[in-house]
Q: What sequence folds into this?
């Protein structure tokens, strides 16, 4: 008998699941994610799970971790300050693929260097300017480096990394190690995001390993990659960008394991986001364009996941004017009032009671702010620092902290930096009021909803005439936005071009009429043709109404609330290596693989050597990650052209995939 442990660290909850003999769930638990010290939430969840069945820690033979922390950080535009170095590019190249947006004012340098398409040096690397600039930059957590055509020859990226490491002790993110595809600006964006996430994922893994060691669990630690495959903890720390969509990818694997469905839409609602993907042939569909999270399209291979800033802890906001009702949800996550009152009941209730006595509704009613417990003092401007000093470690009424519009901007900045948290009204609070959940403080949720219902919408009417009516309105809005998100994903994945953007089609009046089964002179019917698998702790609360709205069947499997943690530990280790053979002139074949291009005299010889090297490298990485019984699959894509009635070789891409289940440690 053996036991394997899956752990998922989300924005709100950390889940732990134990499977016996890799076949059935025997224990599971949930604990609040403790952002101030992740080890507390992880430790609590694991201890509860192993204590349920009195499992000896040394009997656990494998541990795997999935997380939404990286995804949430990008959606909420959080992360450490980084520096970007572009080699061989122009300043105008930084305007492509949202590079300036991703930098958010962080420093960058564009210098001479880079290679051409064939992998030969275009200009020498300007090492003097690079060294001088790196020596002057301060307040940086990591560096991102992207050199022109580095996937054809990474020499300048490697030289730049060596210089940076000699001058600093900061980690360096190299674009060619993150993707083997062309498109330098997009690789640069991916390298920036990777650098920004290094500290976050590093800390998560350190905390997880600390917990396992203290509990006496000796099994190896794996981490879920964005495509649902498993990698070692060391590999995840080196390339944290690969863990974006880790939690959602694990949920797809978990959905398949729980339901046995081969074809379905999987929609996973968490505290911060709703993640939607398609299960095809029993496997999650992979996005050939690269993982898309929030506003960013990366070059990371991941499941074709649509991530929307909508969850149980999304902030309920007043929306004046426009279509779609008087309120909206998200994309920012806040601490639900019911949860804040569970943490600090006296302060929250006293403030809410005082605000209810006022006859005039205020924008700051039922809104609080507190610091996150950070080990280091943030680097702030003078104005931001003054506001930060007003924010305590306990929740403070927003009206006590914000004295002007500029102060409010400072609070928004502190939240985006991850050094402050806001508590406000959420769908989770509405669910407490309606009796759909009882995890936290219902009385505080009721007061917060009463305060919000006193406000007036775009028509000038009160938002609601009763607490229950306001709560129902919030839940209906969640149903509406969830349904719209699923429709948008479905329109995006359809092979037919409907002549408009998916988000426009999802909200189109004809779509709305079709969902309601409009039938007069014209009959319009719209719905989702696949089953929807609803995952997440709150899925049973919200998703039956979503199924009714979209005219489709909804499956709510047992253990839907911990599907991510299940998927984290039932997947395979998969390592992919790719290489390219180009032909700069007829009869010349250049193989490109992590180094200077190697010349061959024949296409057959170049393909043979490249496949051998890629196979060796992928198997080695799979074994380093802990795989056993490794199998290999090789795909070739050869491009040719017809010139003067002759077939001429243009380019070949070789992809080698090595996979296997993780080794189970012997106790």
A:
């Amino acid at each position: 008998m053996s036991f394997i442990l899956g752990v998922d660290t989300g924005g709100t909850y950390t889940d732990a699941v134990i499977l016996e003999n890799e076949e059935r769930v025997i224990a599971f638990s949930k604990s609040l994610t403790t952002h101030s010290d992740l080890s507390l939430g992880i430790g609590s969840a694991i201890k509860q799970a192993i204590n349920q069945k009195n499992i000896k820690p040394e009997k656990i033979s494998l541990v795997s971790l999935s997380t939404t922390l990286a995804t949430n950080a990008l959606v909420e535009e959080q992360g450490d300050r980084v520096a970007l170095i572009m080699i061989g590019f122009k300043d105008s190249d930084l305007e492509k693929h949202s590079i300036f947006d991703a930098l958010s004012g962080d420093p960058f340098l564009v210098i001479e260097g880079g290679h051409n398409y064939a992998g030969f040096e275009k200009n020498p690397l300007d090492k003097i300017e690079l060294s001088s600039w790196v020596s002057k930059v301060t307040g940086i957590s990591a560096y991102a480096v992207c050199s022109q055509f580095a996937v054809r020859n990474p020499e300048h990226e490697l030289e730049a990394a060596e210089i940076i490491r000699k001058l600093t002790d900061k980690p360096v993110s190299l674009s060619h190690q993150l993707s083997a595809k062309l498109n330098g600006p997009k690789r640069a964006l991916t390298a920036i995001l990777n650098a920004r996430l290094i500290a976050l994922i590093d800390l998560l893994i350190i905390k997880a390993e600390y917990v396992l060691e203290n509990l006496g669990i000796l099994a190896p630690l794996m981490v879920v990659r964005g495509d649902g495959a498993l990698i070692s903890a060391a590999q995840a720390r080196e390339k944290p960008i690969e863990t974006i969509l880790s939690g959602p990818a694990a949920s797809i694997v978990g959905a398949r394991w729980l339901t046995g469905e081969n074809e379905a839409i999987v929609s996973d609602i968490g505290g911060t986001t709703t993640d939607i993907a398609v299960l095809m042939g029993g496997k999650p569909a992979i996005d050939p364009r690269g993982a898309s999270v929030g506003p960013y399209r990366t070059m990371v291979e991941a499941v074709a996941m649509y991530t929307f800033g909508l969850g149980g802890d999304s902030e309920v906001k007043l929306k004046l004017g426009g279509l779609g009702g008087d309120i909206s949800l998200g994309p920012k996550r806040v601490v639900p009032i019911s949860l804040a009152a569970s943490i600090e009941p006296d302060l929250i209730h006293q403030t809410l009671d005082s605000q209810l006595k006022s006859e005039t509704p205020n924008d700051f009613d039922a809104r609080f702010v507190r610091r996150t417990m950070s080990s280091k003092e943030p680097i702030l401007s003078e104005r931001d620092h003054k506001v930060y000093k007003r924010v305590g470690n306990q929740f403070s009424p927003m009206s006590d902290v914000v004295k002007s519009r500029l102060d409010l901007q400072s609070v928004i900045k502190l939240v985006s930096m991850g050094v402050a948290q806001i508590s406000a009204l959420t769908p989770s609070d509405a669910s407490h009021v309606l009796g759909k959940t009882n995890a936290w403080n219902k009385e505080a949720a009721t007061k917060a909803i009463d305060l919000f219902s006193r406000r007036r919408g775009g028509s000038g009417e009160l938002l609601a005439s009763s607490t229950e009516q306001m709560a129902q309105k919030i839940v209906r809005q969640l149903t509406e936005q969830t349904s719209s998100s699923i429709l948008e994903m479905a329109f995006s994945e359809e092979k037919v071009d409907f002549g408009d953007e998916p988000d426009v089609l999802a909200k189109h009046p004809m779509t709305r009429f079709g969902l309601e089964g409009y039938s007069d002179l014209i009959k319009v019917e719209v719905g989702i043709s696949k089953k929807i698998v609803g995952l997440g702790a709150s899925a049973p609360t919200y998703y039956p109404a979503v199924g009714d709205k979209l005219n489709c069947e909804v499956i709510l499997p047992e253990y839907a609330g911990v599907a991510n943690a299940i998927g984290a530990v039932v997947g395979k280790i998969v390592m992919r290596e790719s290489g390219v053979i180009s032909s700069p002139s007829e009869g010349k074949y250049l193989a490109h693989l992590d180094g200077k291009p190697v010349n061959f005299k024949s296409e057959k010889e170049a393909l043979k050597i490249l496949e051998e090297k890629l196979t060796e490298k992928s198997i080695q990485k799979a074994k380093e990650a802990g795989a056993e019984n490794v199998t290999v699959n090789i795909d070739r894509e050869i491009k040719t052209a017809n010139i003067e009635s002759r077939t001429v070789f243009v380019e070949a891409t070789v992809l080698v995939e090595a996979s296997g289940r993780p080794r189970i440690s012997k106790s």
